[in-house]
Amino acid sequence: MATTSSPTTTYLRRYTDLPALLHLLTERKLTLLDPKTWDDKNDAFFISLYKEKKKLKTVLGLCFSQTSETYHHWRVFSNGPAGVCIVFDRDALLTAMKKVHGLSTGSMNYMTLADARKKTVRISELPFLKRNGFKPEREFRAIFESSTVDLPALSVDIPLACIRSVSLSPWMHNSLSASTVAAIRSINGCAKLKVSRSTLISNEQWKAIGMAAT
């Protein structure tokens, strides 16, 4: 299965947590997991159908966003003070992923139930098809499939250079952010990595605009 879409942004965001970030920075690997644990059960069901209909032994996935940070992304995918958002250079990341046989990438296709009823969905569409209510997420997905090996997870080698920046959770207390940034930058090769705490829910410049209201 080839990449299903042309680039719409120059970056991809991955919302996750600190343990996953530390593993990525230390091991230089991204991990694809079994989609059966995903929150959207319709989505997990479609992946299960894809696996069954294609008689595959393994289907694993990893999700990204193609839009700027939003409250929704933080709350749903990286809730709590240990959440992080990793911003990847799109071209560099996809170049690394293309080296993995059986791994494909693409933007999600969002459809209303009414529109879906009017067409016959192809099996190849199932991993990249989602209900229209999720459209604001602007999801981009990596899917690994194999008909010969049964894997619980797959690690993909990536260069640290493909990481543009890291945002720490907006719910992380200010008193903890400096030491967290220092710990991340102490990892080999990460001394100059751009790391900062998100100010999405409390931004002094935004507050100043309100203060200046007349």
Can you walk through the features of this model?
The chain is of the alpha+beta class and 214 residues long. It has one domain. The protein has helices at 18-27, 41-53, 71-77, 90-97, 113-117, 174-185, 204-211; strands at residues 11-17, 29-33, 58-65, 83-89, 103-107, 109-111, 129-131, 139-146, 153-157, 163-168, 195-197. The strands form four sheets. The protein has a four-stranded mixed beta sheet, sandwiched between helices.
Tell me how many strands there are.
11
Total helices: the number is 7
In helices, the fraction of residues equals: 25-40%
Oligomer: single chain
- Main beta sheet strand tally, sense and closure: 4 strands, mixed
Structural class: alpha+beta
Portion of residues in beta strands equals 25-35%
How are the strands of the biggest sheet laid out side by side? 1-4-10-11
- What is the H-and-E element order? EHEHEHEHEEHEEEEHEH
* Span of the ends, CA to CA: 57 Å
Low confidence ranges: 1-6
The tally of domains stands at 1
Shape call: globular
Question: What does this entry show, briefly?
Answer:
The chain has 214 residues and is α+β, with helices and mostly antiparallel strands. Helix content is 29%, strand content 28%. The protein has one domain.
Name a few traits of the molecule.
DUF2971 domain-containing protein; four-stranded mixed sheet; 7 helices; alpha+beta; disordered N terminus; 11 strands; three-stranded antiparallel sheet; 28% strand; 214 residues; globular
Write the layout of secondary structure elements.
Elements (H helix, E strand, L loop, with lengths): L10 E7 H10 L1 E5 L7 H13 L4 E8 L5 H7 L5 E7 H8 L5 E5 L1 E3 L1 H5 L11 E3 L7 E8 L6 E5 L5 E6 L5 H12 L9 E3 L6 H8 L3
Parallel strand pairs: 6-7, 10-11
Antiparallel strand pairs: 1-4, 2-9, 3-8, 4-10, 5-8
